[in-house]
């Protein structure tokens, strides 16, 4: 893709920016007919795979996230690659990618390269993608934890930018991962909380309370028109604990 061109997949993010006058792209490259981008083979999900397909066929937590994205019309048009490319701290699919340590595949005329999610997302709506690169796929690990849960907190279940997004996964050996969105400049992992709860085979009430406390400490939210810093911090711990409890059932 030429430098200075704007990629258009589903358009569910780009057209909002255009309609509000925030951007006026001079050159737009439509990607919907690029068949390679819509391919999904094993853990390699093409950037053009829609939320509708993820809702139907995706891993549990990613499917749960997909069901809350916009309206049916939005889910039929919007793509995972678009969500990744926008790199919003409130991107619905990003906490799942962080929780499973997914990688982003980038293609250009000079070849392809792959960046892990935490190397790719570098700031609020900022990524390590070069101007001549196109997001071609998202690569998931070969093995995913069987227990995985997603939820978000907002004024309603769908068609809303939520105040907190969270994914919790737990493997058979007890390894637990916690990823959160809308509570920091980028999607984050609650590493201290993960370390604590991963070391406990059968978490009790005290463990769960400490887990929630650590999650609340690790987020760095702001106050804006959707919520306050205090509420986001508190609800991050509450939501993470509830999802962990689901994983432990």
Mean pLDDT: 92
Q: By helix and strand content, what is the structural category?
A: alpha+beta
- CATH fold naming of the largest domain: Uridine Diphospho-n-acetylenolpyruvylglucosamine Reductase, domain 3
Low-confidence stretches: none
- Report how far the terminal alpha carbons are from each other: 47 Å
SSE run: EHEEEHHHHHEEHEEEEEEEHHH
Strand order of the largest sheet: 3-4-9-5-6
User: Can you tell me the overall shape?
Assistant: globular
Fraction in helix? 25-40%
Tell me what the CATH architecture of the largest domain is.
2-Layer Sandwich
Count of helical stretches: 10
Strand content: 15-25%
Question: What is the highest CATH level, the class of the largest domain?
Answer: Alpha Beta
Tally of discrete structural domains: 2
Q: What Rg, in angstroms, do the CA atoms define?
A: 18 Å
Oligomeric assembly: single chain
Task: Please summarize what this structure is.
The protein contains ten helices and 13 strands. The protein has 249 residues and is of the alpha+beta class.
Question: What does this entry look like structurally?
Answer:
- With 249 residues, the protein is α+β, with helices and mostly antiparallel strands.
- It folds into two domains: 130 residues, Uridine Diphospho-n-acetylenolpyruvylglucosamine Reductase, domain 3 (2-Layer Sandwich), CATH 3.30.465; 102 residues, CO dehydrogenase flavoprotein, C-terminal domain (Enolase-like, domain 1).
- The chain has ten helices and 13 strands.
- Strands 3-4-9-5-6 form a five-stranded antiparallel sheet. The chain has a four-stranded antiparallel sheet with strand order 10-11-12-13.
- β1, α1 and β2 form a beta-alpha-beta unit.
- α8 runs antiparallel to α9 and α9 runs antiparallel to α10.
- The mean pLDDT is 92.
């Amino acid at each position: 893709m030429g430098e200075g061109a704007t990629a258009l997949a589903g358009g569910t993010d780009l057209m909002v920016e255009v309609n509000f006058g925030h951007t006026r792209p001079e050159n737009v490259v439509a990607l919907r007919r690029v068949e390679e981008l819509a391919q999904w083979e094993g853990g390699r999900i093409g950037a053009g795979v829609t939320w509708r397909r993820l809702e139907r066929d995706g891993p549990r937590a990613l499917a749960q996230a997909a069901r809350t994205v916009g309206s049916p019309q939005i889910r039929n048009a919007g793509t995972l690659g678009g969500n990744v490319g926008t790199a919003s701290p409130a991107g619905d699919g990003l906490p799942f990618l962080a929780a499973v340590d997914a990688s982003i595949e980038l293609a250009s005329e000079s070849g392809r390269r792959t960046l892990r999610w935490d190397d790719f997302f570098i700031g609020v709506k900022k990524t390590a993608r070069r101007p001549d690169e196109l997001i071609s796929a998202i690569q998931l690990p070969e093995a995913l934890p069987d227990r995985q849960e997603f939820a978000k907190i907002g004024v309603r279940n769908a068609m809303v930018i939520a105040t907190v997004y969270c994914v919790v996964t737990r493997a058979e050996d007890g390894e637990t991962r916690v990823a959160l969105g809308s509570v920091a400049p980028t999607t984050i992992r609650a590493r201290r909380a993960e370390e604590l709860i991963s070391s406990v085979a059968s978490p009790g009430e005290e463990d769960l309370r400490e887990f929630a406390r650590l999650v609340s400490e690790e987020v760095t939210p702001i106050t804006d028109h959707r919520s306050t810093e205090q509420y986001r911090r508190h609800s991050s711990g509450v939501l993470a604990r509830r999802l962990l409890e689901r994983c432990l059932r």
